[in-house]
Design goal:
- The complex is a heterodimer.
- Chain A is of the alpha+beta class.
- Chain A folds into three domains: 52 residues, OB fold (Dihydrolipoamide Acetyltransferase, E2P) (Beta Barrel), CATH 2.40.50; 78 residues, OB fold (Dihydrolipoamide Acetyltransferase, E2P) (Beta Barrel); 80 residues, K Homology domain, type 1 (Ribosomal Protein S8, Chain: A, domain 1).
- Chain A has four helices and 16 strands.
- The termini of chain A are far apart.
- The relative contact order of chain A is 0.12.
- In chain B, the strands form two sheets. Chain B has a five-stranded mixed beta sheet. Chain B has a four-stranded antiparallel beta sheet with strand order 7-6-8-9, with helices on both faces.
- Chain B is globular.
- Classes of the chains: A alpha+beta, B alpha+beta.
- Chains A and B meet through loops of A and strand 3, helix 2 and helix 4 of B.
Chain lengths: 236, 212
């Protein structure tokens, strides 16, 4: 039943009596859970989460990213190899990014990407047997914010994957609250990388510190911190 | 069972780590993975598990290699290696203090570090050491002095699914009845180790539940 949610589970433990969907009497299991014949077995250590009507998954603290299809990712160009760029995305393999997967790119008009550039891309192919494949366009051929970022300033830093999930969840007010006090741009990659750019270096540093400090804060604490931060930046 | 204490997440660069103290014996383990792996060690359909054992002083010899092999085989059975093909999971075990029941402490700390790293596992393992002394008495978690005087030293590793034996490592001579007695005694105390894992992870993850 729903009571399972929020408890810590260890690998090898069985979970029984999960809530099934009323129509199909099925359970959908996500990361950290595995079906073994009739029962559900835990494979990762973490808190069990539940979402209506029948979704279950394990929320675990990973430091190492494993590519998932559809994830926005911040990669660093490690090499140029013929038709593709090879990007370090922090997982076990380098990811590939075709030079045609940019907005307005054609065979003749190659995108301007150099080794060491930071690229914000989406994961198109994520399969445990193949290397991840990235793109910087959507299905309409538009970039939608994807592409090479950070050419004119900004700063990228690494955080835990748990914090990234928190930042992107609809309950978290951090990015919105920070925006009340200052103007900034940011890109958040599911692989634990965050890129921020504000109008000055001190603002950027403040943003980085605020984001890294917010991992275990509640929304009230975040509000208080942001207020303090804007005051400090204004020189009070 | 002697008292167990652990610290998780003390090292910053690795994906998971654990410092485990069992009585006076202490081991630190770091886990990296899934990472890239050297081409000649790459396996097409599963992850390569590597264990590196670092003793406090001296160069690694045959005994250390044997030690690595035992831990590697134990870890490989518990890791869901098929979930990360063509990648590597590296486990580095650093001796801090060896005061007996050493193999058990190493395996338990490797298990905790794998938990901390969030590597997909089939089950958990708990290792327990016992000693048969010259009077035929069984002593759980012997210290190094007792180990020197004992007749046989047995280390058992159990899983947490149906508490079956994963690994056995023995030294010395013993009867089959004694082996059976040791197995059932160690099996009983392995449950305490699993409880310890659960308690440690609940403590580590409690701050998470508090926020959400």
């Amino acid at each position: 039943m729903v009571d399972h949610a929020g408890h810590v589970y260890l690998p090898g433990e069985l979970i029984c009596n999960l809530k099934e969907s009323e129509k199909t009497s099925k359970i959908l299991v996500g990361p950290g859970l595995r079906q073994d014949e009739e029962s559900i077995i835990v494979t990762k250590c973490g808190l069990l989460r539940f979402k209506e009507p029948n979704f279950y998954w394990i929320d675990s603290h990973l430091k190492r990213y494993v590519a998932v299809k559809g994830d926005p990712i911040i990669g660093i160009v490690a090499a140029k190899a013929g038709d593709v760029f090879r990007l370090d995305i922090g997982s076990s393999d380098l990811a590939t990014l075709s030079y045609l997967a940019f907005e307005g790119a054609t065979k003749r008009n190659r995108p301007d990407v150099k080794v060491g550039d930071i690229v914000y891309a989406k994961c198109m192919v994520a399969n445990k047997d193949m290397e991840p494949e990235l793109v910087c366009i959507d299905s309409n051929g538009r970039s939608g914010g994807l592409g090479v970022i950070g050419r004119d300033g900004g700063f990228m830093f690494q955080t835990s994957l748990n914090l990234i999930r928190k930042l992107l969840s609809s309950d978290c007010i951090l990015l919105k609250t920070l925006g009340n006090g200052m103007h900034y741009e940011c890109a958040i990659g599911m692989n634990g990388r965050v890129w921020v750019k504000a109008k000055s270096v001190s603002h950027t540093i403040a943003l980085c510190n605020a984001i890294s400090a917010a991992e275990y804060m509640s929304n009230e604490q975040i509000k208080a911190m942001c207020k303090k931060l804007t005051n400090a930046l204004a020189g009070f | 069972m002697c008292e167990m204490m652990c610290e998780l997440g003390q090292l910053t660069r690795c994906d998971g780590d654990a410092c485990l103290m069992q009585g006076e014996t202490c081991v630190t383990t770091a886990v990296y993975g899934p990472t890239e792996v050297r081409i000649n060690k790459e396996i097409l359909d599963k992850a390569t598990v590597e264990v590196v054992y670092k003793s406090k002083v001296g160069l690694p010899g045959c005994a250390e290699k044997m030690f690595e092999r035992i831990i590697r085989n134990t870890c490989e059975t518990m890791i869901l290696t098929t979930a990360h093909p063509r990648s590597g999971i590296n486990i580095i075990i650093q001796e801090m203090q060896n005061s007996g029941s050493y193999l058990a402490c190493c395996i338990n700390s490797a298990c905790l570090a794998l938990l901390d790293a969030g590597v997909s596992l089939k089950f958990l393992v708990a290792a327990v050491t016992c000693l048969i002394d010259n009077e035929g008495e069984i002593i759980l978690d012997p210290n190094s002095k007792q180990e020197k005087d004992g007749k046989a030293l047995l280390t058992f590793v159990f899983d947490n699914k149906d508490f079956s034996i994963v690994t056995v490592n023995t030294k010395g001579s013993y009867s089959s009845q004694q082996f059976k007695d040791c197995t059932s005694l160690c099996k009983k105390s392995s449950k305490q180790v699993f409880e310890f894992y659960k308690k440690s992870m609940e403590k580590l993850l409690s701050k998470d539940n508090f926020v959400k």
